[in-house]
Amino acid sequence: MVMRWFKQNVWAAVLVTLARIYIGWQWLDAGWHKMTGGFDATGFLKGAVEKPVIDRATQEAVYPNFVNFLDHFAIPNVKLINFLIPLGEFLIGVGLIVGGLTLAATFFGMMLNFMFLFAGTVSTNPWLLLIAMIVFTAGANAGKFGLDYYLIPLIRKGWKRLMAAMRKEGKTHANIDGRTLPR
């Protein structure tokens, strides 16, 4: 009952919209400062590899796979990371503020929050992650007062056309033998 209210009620949509705009501004501001301020993630990435999050009892890295990702992919491709992080933060912020592709923007914002936490940076990440989870849980209601009000029906219509065209060509609902499965 509470979840239905949260996902469908207009007043819940108002509350989620306020939360969405708040975290959107946080992302937009962070991305803009990085894009205009000569952002370089090299020191941050090297620090996260040299001093990973350590389990106090075992003195072992808590997220060894993430440290390996940073060491073997992110650091060698730091120019790509220096481009993607600011642009991603900025676009997440725009998406959340205007309510366009809200759930995608929220998802990618949560992923960035998790990555920063895995690297050992606490800062505002837990707070933003908590608010993002609330927005994400609201589902389509999170974008009710935004571009999603217009975008989601268009996306659904396009998806239905695509599926109908694929069914016509026999590319959907086929099993391993290529025979069409009953619906």
Tell me what you see in this structure.
α5 packs across α6. The protein is mainly alpha-helical and 183 residues long. The model has no long low-confidence stretch (mean pLDDT 92). The two termini are 31 Å apart. The protein has 2 domains: 142 residues, no CATH class; 37 residues. Helices cover 69% and strands 0% of the residues. It contains 8 helices and no strands. InterPro entries: DoxX. Keywords: Membrane, Transmembrane, Transmembrane helix.
Mean of all residue-level pLDDT scores: 92
Structural class category: mainly alpha
**Poorly predicted sequence stretches spanning 5 or more consecutive residues:** none
Order of helices and strands: HHHHHHHH
Number of beta-strand segments: 0
Task: Please state the overall shape, judged from the principal axes of the Cα atoms.
Answer: globular
Give the helix proportion (percent range).
Answer: 55-70%
Rg, please? Answer: 21 Å
Question: What is the tally of helical segments?
Answer: 8
Number of structural units classed as domains: 2
Termini, distance in Å?
31 Å
Strand-residue fraction? Answer: under 5%
Largest sheet: none
Subcellular location: Membrane
Pfam families: DoxX
Membrane topology: Multi-pass membrane protein
Protein name: Crp/Fnr family transcriptional regulator
What does this entry show, briefly?
The chain is mainly α.
